[in-house]
Amino acid sequence: MDDLEKARISRRDFLKSLGLGAAAAAAASVLPGAAAQAAEETAGATWGMLVDLTRCTGCNSCALACKEANGLPQIPGKVPTALDADTYTFVEAFQVANLRGEIVTRYVKRQCMHCLEAACVSACPAAAMHSSGEGPIIYRASRCLGCRYCEVACPFGIPRFNWDNSITPKINKCWMCYERLKEGEEPACVSACPTGAIRFGRREDLLVQAHARIASHPDRYIDHVLGESEVGGTSVLYLSDVPFDRLGFPANLPQVAPPKQTEKILYKLPYVIFGMAAFMTGTALYTHRKPAATVPVEADAATETPDKEA
Amino acid sequence: MGEIITYPAFWIVAALSIGIPVVFLAGARFLAVRLAGRSQGAAAAAAEGIVITVPRVRSPWKVLRDLVLIGVMATGTAIILVRFMFGLGAVTNLSDRFPLGFWIGFDVMSGVALAAGGFVMAATVHIFRIHRFEPLVRPAILTAFLGYLLVIAALLVDLGRPYNVWRPLVHWQYHSVLWEVGVCVATYTTVLFFEFLPVILERVNRIEAITKRLPTVAFYRWLKKVSIVFIILGVVLSTLHQSSLGSLWVIVPQKLHPLWYSLYLPVFFWMSAVAVGFAMTIVESNLSSRAFKRGLEQPLLAELGQIASVVLAVYLVARVADITARGAWPRAFEPTLQAASFWVEMIAGVVVPIILFAVPSLRRNPKVLFAGASLVVAFGVALNRLNVSWIGLLSYTGNIYSPSWMELVVTVTLLGFGVLAFYLAAKYLPVFPEEGAHKAQE
Ligand code: SF4
Ligand code: SF4
Q1: Ligand 1 atom closest to the CA of A159, numbered from 1
Q2: CATH of the domain at B178
Q3: Sorting pLDDT into bands at 50, 70 and 90, what band is B344?
Q4: Is residue B408 part of a domain?
Q5: CATH architecture assignment, domain A44-263
């Protein structure tokens, strides 16, 4: 464990020192973890959304606007009740006890959390899951193998696969309306929300806002912004007056980003490769040192007529 | 069902699913007869034992067995075609909450592990130069090569967009464990092909070289000369992806049961792969000796068992130490499926084989040795891979996945094609040692 940790840290220092030179860009794209580190340092500058559950009335405007904006099929007169291949976001209702023990109804808008160091991006073998570098985690179907490892990796259980599509299934999930963002617009769900329960902005500012709201209403909010530190931080943040574990958020979410775990191991691999190759080559050279005496002459197949038994 | 009969596609599937196995079998038979016929002229032909024997009356049991096998394989082929027409949801029990199932957990994860004999035996003989194991190398490499082809076949069925399977080779993703596994499996399968190629060339050369010297002869010589490079490459690649199949699950700390989740998963996967490399060689030798009525290299196999017991013992100590260090032992004594599966895996798959292999009087008995090796294969490794990729995850997801009968039939079908390919290759290529050495034992 310790040396794993050390290897990672020394690698980072090494990268930082490289950061001065022109090699930085190349190194960042080539060495594992460098990109993640960059993501960490610019985390403040990424886009994000703040969902204040105390303000949500469960009107479902966001879910319907999402369908509209992304051209997803709808069932007329019905609101979506779960994430599926045609639903990037929906509003889930809970009858729960709040901190004072009263039973209240709370509505939770669910969608991809747009993790700062997304497990799905780290897991994807073909860069189909991709970090835009500005917060949104986007999916590029043309590269996707359909291996579904991103679904395994996602700590929030978000990605959805087209199980009934024979040969062009996709992974489906919220992409924070990245197209709209690039045109200077907010995500469709944010624009549609009539109560201001969803705020859009720079993650840094949203965090400040969230803590300000907690500070001014300590009796209303629980003192926790979900997504601030969970799985290394997410671009989507939640404020609530009911403990999050009663609202269907996964319990025991790791505080470190899951990709960190695999990076520890992947950083070891160069040593494994060279160590193994060197050991095997060394052994082979040693055992082959007296070729004439110990190595039986390999039979020449061209002239050999082995007598396989009948 | 009634409606489905009206689809033209149904009839295409039906025709193809009977057609593909038949064409495969007929093609193999044709090749076999042709090879045998062509070598007839060679001096050695009579002694080669590949002359197709006169058809004899077959026992009804064997006919029935063959019919059942062909039936299963035709069904499996049909299911694969259905999967490519109606999607993975039509044939599997997979869902977004349990997206990787039996085809990955068994066909791919166990498949790769059980093919470890290739690199383990190649390293033992050609790198460590323990020459007495030479007769076991070629069958082990053949098993490995076919094993990897099966893994790739299963993967192509399981992938949603299999035509993109090459993409990891182009878009390098150093941070993705799956990327690394994919690249290593692709490269290592190529390496295995070159490790096995001399065997094919020997056959080609023996047939043709009598009359003319082929370029393949020179190629063969060159291959032999550089073979050590391929073997070292094979060991490195195997070490990488055997272990990385374990790393795949390191990204889900909150999902995998603590009896298996560990940062040292890759190390355990590698160690158990080495152990099963030896065990699988023992199993495969036993099975092929029955199929081909060959003698058994019993003393050599017993020695392999002895080596395996050492590897297994180290593995056992490491697993115990890891669970102790993480304080996960209480979870092994809960009344859960996971705990039960854990004990079966460790006792039947590790502890018992260690004893069977370590006690000289036991391992000298061919039946005991075979039983011990089979236990390692079935419980020590296959069950371990299923525990990590399936049972161990159920504690998080709830009991929402078990393979559908169609998933199982496809697995059996792919295995069937693999065994058939092994049988044909072993029968018509110089895979097994050809001297009369083992005749004495028969
Ligand atoms: S919530 Fe899941 S799908 Fe969304 S970015 Fe995080 S890991 Fe990826
Ligand atoms: S299913 Fe597609 S997006 Fe998800 S990990 Fe596999 S290749 Fe990447």
Answers
A1: 3
A2: 1.20.1630.10
A3: very high
A4: yes
A5: 2-Layer Sandwich (3.30)
Could you tell me if B207 and B166 lie in one domain?
yes
Q: Which of B352, B341, B339 is nearest to B279 (CA)?
A: B352
**Which among B411, B383, B400 has a CA at the least distance from the CA of B99?**
B400
Residues of chain A with pLDDT > 90, as a percent, come to: 63
Residues touching ligand 2 (Cβ under 6 Å) are: A 123-126, 128-129, 139, 144-150, 171
Contacts of A179 (CB under 8 A, 6+ apart): none
Q: Are residues B152 and B3 in the same domain?
A: no
Residue A1 banded pLDDT, cuts 50, 70, 90: very low
User: What percent of chain A lies above the pLDDT cut of 70?
Assistant: 79
Least confident window among A154-158, A286-290, B394-398: A286-290
The DSSP secondary structure of chain A, one letter per residue, reads: -HHHHHHHHHHHHHHHHHTTSTHHHHHHHHSTTHHHHHHHHTGGGSEEEEEETTT-----HHHHHHHHHHT----TT----S-BTTBS-EEEEEEEE-TTS-EEEEEEEE----BTT-HHHHH-TTS-EEE-SSS-EEE-GGG-----HHHHH-TT---EE-TT-SS---EE---TTHHHHHTTPPPHHHHH-SS--EEEEEHHHHHHHHHHHHHH-TTTS-S--BTSSGGG-BSEEEE-SS-GGGGT--SS--SS-HHHHHHHHHTTHHHHHHHHHHHHHHHHHHHTSSHHHHSPPPPPTTT-------
> How large is the average pLDDT for residues B300-304?
92
Residues 168-207 of B with CB under 8 A from A: 168, 171, 173-182, 198, 201-202, 205-206
Mean pLDDT value across residues B407-434: 88
Q: Is B12 within a domain?
A: yes
Two structure tokens written together for A95: 């009858």
Q: Are residues B258 and B148 in the same domain?
A: yes
Mean pLDDT computed over B329-355: 94
Average the pLDDT over A296-307 and give the result: 40
Closest residue, chain A, to B218 (C-alpha): A302
Residues B211 and B311 in one domain: yes
Distances (CA, A) of B65 to B73, B416, B421: 12, 13, 18
Q: Which atom of ligand 2 is nearest to the CA of A149?
A: 5
Domain that holds residue B22: 1-91
pLDDT value of residue B287: 87
Domain C-terminal end among B91, B121, B139: B91
B101: closest CA of chain A, how far (Å): 11
Give the mean pLDDT of chain B: 85
Residue B101 in domain: yes
Question: Does B435 reside within a domain?
Answer: no
This prediction's pTM? 0.83
Q: Do B87 and A32 touch (CB under 8 A)?
A: no
